[in-house]
């Protein structure tokens, strides 16, 4: 049976992040009132602030995408922030959601929470069946704790708290920090700069051999709304395209998107991270959702957005 979100007040914390802003775009198509907060309005790590927000704003539904996020280097360099901030954010938002009578909550995990050497494609039930990838275990453990918290509230108090496992994302409002960003943002800006400066080559981290699955954030936002309406169960559901590409080939696609004509070099002193983490998306497909934006057109949209930002 469909869960109706009609006329609901939906809280989207982290509303100026990549996922949060995509959720705002998507929720415009629904008959809902959106309560958007950013880290400037509300520090989600602060229990009192979160409590007060719930008390005053009284949301019916929550989509918790706000998190301390970053790429392989950031995860490895700021482990305390990645585990500490994320645990605090989730505990505050999820525990208080029950206290304040939230009717449904969607928590976003991450595909990096699956064990490092998972069978491929990764099914939902592989969670916690092996050791994690060390470069992002801090973030992964926090995300696993968030999923378990939702499951515990579902089990003990019958709260309709659900979780999802998005694959690697890209899209508008991505963070373009040269060291701390994820690979799509890092490569898009590096190839763009190389083009402008007429460089001979661009450096890509690692061997180029690892495989990654990339989803445009507008598809993720669409899947989140779909899950709110159509999913109510304990397992964290995979959200992705079910297709992956090597980092080397991904770099070539970005090179073409940007129109760079030089060479690609690999810096093997940088970590590769997990070799492969392709999601099995058969469950969400069976429910009736699939992604719409293929990688090639998604990257064109991404670059167009990037260029528009440059002109501002
Ligand atoms: P991960 O999926 O958690 O490993 O996150 P990332 O997006 O940071 O990295 C994905 C893959 O891209 C890894 O194998 C990286 O080594 C590779 N990669 C290649 N160049 C870059 C870069 O400039 N920045 C980042 N973050 N990763 C890169």
Describe the structure.
By secondary structure, the chain is of the alpha/beta class. It contains ten helices and twelve strands. The strands form four sheets. Strands 2-1-3-4-5-10 form a six-stranded parallel beta sheet, with helices on both faces. Strands 6-9 form a two-stranded parallel ribbon. It has a two-stranded parallel sheet with strand order 7-12. It starts with 8 loop residues before the first strand and ends with a helix. Guanosine-5'-diphosphate is lined by residues 71-73, 112, 136, 168, 181-183, 186-187, 204-206, 210, 212, 247, 270-273. Guanosine-5'-diphosphate binds at residues 71-73, 112, 136, 168, 181-183, 186-187, 204-206, 210, 212, 247, 270-273.
The first-to-last residue Cα distance is 46 Å
Q: Would you list the SSEs in sequence order as H and E? A: EHEHEHHEHEEHEEEHEEHEHH
Structural category = alpha/beta
| CATH domain fold name of the domain at 9-170 and 214-241 and 278-293 | Rossmann fold
CATH class descriptor of the domain at 9-170 and 214-241 and 278-293? Alpha Beta
Q: How many alpha or pi helices?
A: 10
In CATH terms, the superfamily of the domain at 9-170 and 214-241 and 278-293 is NAD(P)-binding Rossmann-like Domain
Radius of gyration: 19 Å
Beta-strand content estimate: 15-25%
Rounded mean pLDDT is 97
Report the CATH architecture of the domain at 9-170 and 214-241 and 278-293.
Answer: 3-Layer(aba) Sandwich
**Strands ordered across the widest β-sheet:** 2-1-3-4-5-10
The global form is globular
The hetero compounds bound to this protein are: guanosine-5'-diphosphate
How much helical structure, as a percent, in the residues? 40-55%
Regions with pLDDT < 50 over 5+ consecutive residues?
none
């Amino acid at each position: 049976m469909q869960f109706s979100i009609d006329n609901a007040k939906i809280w989207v914390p982290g509303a100026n992040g990549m996922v949060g802003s995509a959720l705002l775009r998507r929720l415009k198509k629904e008959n809902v009132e959106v309560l958007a907060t950013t880290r400037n309005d509300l520090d989600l790590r602060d229990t009192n602030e979160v409590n007060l927000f719930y008390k005053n704003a009284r949301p019916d539904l929550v989509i918790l995408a706000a998190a301390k996020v970053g790429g392989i280097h950031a995860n490895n360099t700021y482990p305390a922030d990645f585990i500490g901030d994320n645990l605090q954010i989730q505990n505050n938002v999820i525990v208080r959601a029950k206290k304040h009578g939230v009717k449904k909550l969607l928590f976003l995990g991450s595909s990096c929470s699956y064990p490092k050497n998972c069978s491929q494609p990764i099914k939902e039930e592989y969670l916690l069946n092996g050791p994690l990838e060390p470069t992002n275990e801090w973030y992964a453990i926090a995300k696993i704790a968030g999923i378990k918290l939702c499951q515990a509230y579902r089990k003990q108090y019958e709260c309709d708290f659900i979780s999802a496992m998005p694959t690697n994302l890209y899209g508008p409002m991505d963070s373009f920090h040269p060291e701390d960003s994820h690979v799509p943002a890092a490569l898009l800006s590096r190839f763009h700069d190389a083009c402008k400066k007429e460089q001979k080559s661009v450096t890509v981290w690692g061997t180029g051999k690892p495989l990654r699955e990339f989803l445009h954030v507008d598809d993720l936002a669409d899947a989140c709304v779909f899950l709110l309406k159509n999913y109510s169960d304990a397992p964290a559901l995979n959200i992705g395209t079910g297709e992956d590409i090597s980092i080397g080939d991904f770099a070539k696609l970005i090179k073409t998107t940007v129109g760079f004509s030089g060479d690609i070099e690999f810096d093997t002193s940088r970590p590769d991270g997990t070799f492969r983490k392709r999601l099995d998306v058969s469950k969400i497909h069976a429910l009736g959702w699939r992604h719409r934006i293929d990688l090639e057109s998604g990257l064109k949209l991404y670059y167009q957005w990037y260029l528009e930002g440059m002109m501002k």
